[in-house]
Amino acid sequence: MNRIALFLISVFLLALPAAAQQKNISGIVTEPSGEPLIGATIMVKGTNTAAVTDIDGKFSIKAKPGDTLQVTYVGFQKQTIKVAASDNLTIVMQEEANTLDEMVVVGYGTMKKADLTGAVTNVSGSKLEDMRASSVSQSLQGSMPGIYVSRTSGMPGAEATIRVRGITSIGDSDPLVIVDGIPDSMESVNSADIESISVLKDAASASIYGARAAAGVILITTKKAKEGKAKVEYQGTVGFVQSTETPKPVGAIDYMNMYNELKWNDGGNQEGQEYSAYPKDYIDSYLANNAVNPDEYPITDWRELMTRKTAPTTKHDLKVSYGNKVVQTKVSLGYEYTEALYEGRDYQRLTARVNNNFKVTKWLQFGLDAYYRRGITRQPQTNPLAATLYMTPLDPAVNSNGTYAAGHNSSNPWATMNEGGRNNQWTDRLGAKLSVIITPFEGLSISGVWAPGMLFTRKKSYVKKVSYYTADNPDEPAGYASGFSLNKLTENRNLNTWGTKQLFINYNKTFAEDHRTDFMIGYEDYEASSNPLEAASDAMELSDYFYLTNANTNNLSVDGSETQNAYRSIFGRINYSYKGRYMAQFNARWDRSSRFARKYRTGFFPSASIGWVMSEESFLRDVDPRILTFLKLRGSYGTLGNERIGNYPYQASMTFSHPVMVDGSGKPVSVLTASQRDYNIPDITWETTHSWDVGLDATFLNSRLNLTFDWYWKKTKDMLLSIQLPIFMGYDNPKQNAGDMTTKGWDLQLGWRDNIGDFSYSVNFNLSDYRSVMGNMSGKQQESGGTITMEGVEYMSWYGFKSNGLYQNAEDLANSPVLNANTTVGDIKYLDVNGSEGLPDGAISAQYDRVVLGSSQPRLIYGAQIALGWKGFEMSAAFNGIGKQNKMLSRAMLYQRHAAGWTQFTGEVIGTSWSYYNTPEQNLAAKYPRLSDMAIDGSSGNNSQVSDFWMFNGGYFRCKNITLGYSFQPNITKKLKLNSLRVFASVSDPFSIDRYPQGWDPETTDTGSSYIARTWNFGVAVSF
Question: Is residue 140 located within the same domain as residue 36?
Answer without folding.
Answer: no
